[in-house]
Amino acid sequence: MRLVVPHHLHHVSHGKLTPNPSLHKPHSPTHSLSPKTQLHTDAGDIKLEIFCEAVPQTAENFLALCASGAYNHTPIHRLIPGFILQTGSPATDPKSKSSVSIYTNTNNNTSTSPFFPDEIRPTLRHNARGVVSMANKGPNTNGSQFFITFAPAPHLDGRNTVFGRVIQGAGDDGDGDGDVLGRLERVEVDGKGRPRGRVVVKGVTVHANPLAG
């Protein structure tokens, strides 16, 4: 699953960009259902707030996959400094090109498409470092893959479903664990943004899922 890289980043010296701590935090919509998840990565933990009320189908899929262990040991297979980190393909896929969802139906040993529709909301934008959004292959092709922005990416507004934000691990939250996003942004990558060493989401902890059961 590919994202359009901004033109000014095509010639970035990958793995050597210093993140800008002055970038403002992503906006959080006002609602009562805001479960938190903790991504346990090789670089440290990243805590996310999930926007359940704004994008219920996307949130339900993500939280259910987290709870089922679907993201355990999934590679962070794309890291583009100044743009995004991408993950979420099943750990069993060596090329990190596939995607799954809880909406996949299996009949007579034949699986239907794993994709589900976009939930684009004008108020949820890629306007900050730490925005969490769905990766896709085009309109209405959401599954398990998602990305986190390293910087504002307004050209993705209207194309990708924003469903959460980083609330801990971005370096500006006063947490002693520091800037996990910054450490990931500095991982050495090749010319296509692929980490030269294996970097994974080791597991996910879900805190108080209001959509469960």
Please tell me about this protein's structure.
- With about 210 residues, the protein is mainly beta.
- The chain has one domain: Cyclophilin-like (Cyclophilin).
- The chain has helices at about 55-70, 180-185; strands at about 35-40, 45-50, 75-80, 85, 105, 110, 130-135, 145-150, 160-170, 200-205.
- Strands 1-2-9-7-8-4-3-10 form an 8-stranded antiparallel barrel. A two-stranded antiparallel sheet has the order 5-6.
- A hairpin with a 3-residue loop joins strand 3 (about 75-80) and strand 4.
- The longest helix has 13 residues, at about 55-70.
- The relative contact order is 0.28.
- The model is unreliable at about 5-25 (pLDDT under 50).
- One of its GO terms (cellular component) is catalytic step 2 spliceosome.
- Keywords: Isomerase, Rotamase.
List the helices and strands and how they pair.
Elements (H helix, E strand, L loop, with lengths): L35 E6 L2 E7 L5 H13 L5 E7 L3 E4 L18 E2 L2 E2 L19 E4 L11 E4 L12 E7 L11 H6 L14 E8 L6
Antiparallel strand pairs: 1-2, 1-10, 2-9, 3-4, 3-10, 4-8, 5-6, 7-8, 7-9
Can you summarize this structure?
This protein has 213 residues and is mostly beta strands. The chain contains 2 helices and 10 strands; from the N terminus they run ββαβββββββαβ.
